[in-house]
Amino acid sequence: MDNTPKKYFVEQGSIVREIWSKADNILFVFAGSAAEFALNKAVDWLYFTGNLPADPLGRLFSTVAYGRMIIFSEYDGALAAIDKINAIHHGVEKARGAQIPDWAYRDVIYMLIDYSIRSFELLERPLSDEEKEDVFDVFYRMGLRMGLKDMPYNYKEWLISRVDHLREHLVQSHYTLDLFKQYKKHLGTVRYQLLKQVQLLIVPDEAKRLLPIDRLSYLSPVISFYKLTRLVGLHGLLKEAILPPAYKSQIREMDVW
């Protein structure tokens, strides 16, 4: 019998596991990312395959699946998931005959760091400096495995680099407006309004000012109520009321690992 302790890419006590073990946290991560992807100067790469505008929710759940494989799998399985992501991207580059800019890859890693922290702090509690460093370290190592260059070495350096990326790599374009049209088409009017309200709460100011959304926020009191429903075990009912019926089973699976 092999008693060798299992090795994980993300240790079992990591705050990243806690963040990514709850569906509402993950959904808030991707609400923020949906906004920022729409503004990124490299968003044309997401349009090259047509997958994102054609099925933004399907793309969300595909990305979530890879993220959870990396975070919850044993070490070799996590590396295999990262390598598969790399292979998919390299296939797109080959098909287009160009390379995705290194800064665009870093932007995605930065989103995962930032929105993991923002979603947890919005829905749960403030994170300690050590916990934020833990979040940074997980996605930093993911970036290294992907072969990314010029990654900051710690959370404090990342904070500076993150602001630079937000200022240099975001712009409202026709892709921005089209993606938001697709979000509305696939979510429906009510859920689309909810998405924009979440984005108002979670997206950095540098990105928020470029978004095609209203600035009137009414979701903060709802978030307070939502936290209360968690305590009494009713948050699942509220969650199902605001999600497309076709994806309810996949949402429930995010809460179970």
Description:
With 257 residues, the chain is mostly helical. The protein has one domain (15-250). The chain contains 15 helices and no strands. The protein has helices at 15-19, 23-39, 44-49, 51-54, 56-72, 75-96, 102-123, 129-145, 155-169, 174-187, 189-202, 205-208, 220-231, 235-241, 248-254. Helix 2 (23-39) runs antiparallel to helix 7 and helix 2 (23-39) crosses helix 11. The radius of gyration is 18 Å and the shape is globular. The model has no long low-confidence stretch (mean pLDDT 88). GO terms for molecular function: oxidoreductase activity.
List keywords for this structure.
single chain, mainly alpha, 15 helices, 257 residues
List the topology elements:
Blueprint lengths: L14 H5 L3 H17 L4 H6 L1 H4 L1 H17 L2 H22 L5 H22 L5 H17 L9 H15 L4 H14 L1 H14 L2 H4 L11 H12 L3 H7 L6 H7 L3
How confident is the prediction overall: mean pLDDT? 88
Percentage of helical residues? over 70%
Computed structural class: mainly alpha
Order of secondary-structure elements: HHHHHHHHHHHHHHH
* Parts with pLDDT < 50 across at least 5 consecutive residues: none
Gross morphology:
globular
Proportion of β residues? under 5%
Spatial gap, N to C terminus: 25 Å
Write a brief caption for the model.
Helix content is 71%, strand content 0%.
